[in-house]
Design a protein that fits this description.
132 residues, 12 strands, 0% helix
Length: 132
């Protein structure tokens, strides 16, 4: 079955860096719009960054200049480089992808799940914890 799996979450000090990785199975990222979402307990699942098939990047205002999406089509991977991390970046980060629906059409959803959003593929999430 087609799916995405993310990895790379960790606990870091404020000001530190992490790189999250997302691997797709059963479909090609280059044929898809790919996004990173994050969710904190009691909060919405919010779009952090995305890269679409047309080559457009989107970044949430609070992460602009600190987070960067990169891609490796040969390995069918997408990455989220996170620099200058802040305690408010603490969340469960999910990779998501869809061949039809643009993530920018689903900037905020209730849960990071295909049952609660129009985005088809979701990973289980990787925890990022930033301490002050």
């Amino acid at each position: 079955a087609a799916n995405v799996v993310e990895s790379g979450g960790d606990s870091v000090q404020a000001g530190g860096s992490l790189t999250l990785s997302c691997r797709a199975s059963g479909f090609r990222f280059e044929d898809s719009d790919v996004a990173w979402y994050r969710k904190v307990p009691g909060g919405d699942c919010e779009l952090v960054a995305s890269f679409d098939r047309a080559g457009n990047f989107y970044y949430k205002d609070t992460v602009k200049g600190r987070f960067t999406i990169s891609l490796d089509n040969a390995k069918n991977m997408r990455y989220l480089q996170m620099n200058s991390l802040k305690p408010e970046d603490t969340a469960l980060y999910h990779c998501a992808a869809d061949q039809i629906v643009a993530p920018t059409k689903a900037v905020k959803v209730q849960y990071c799940s295909p049952s609660y959003s129009p985005i088809l593929y979701w990973g289980q999430g990787t925890q990022v914890t930033v301490s002050s």
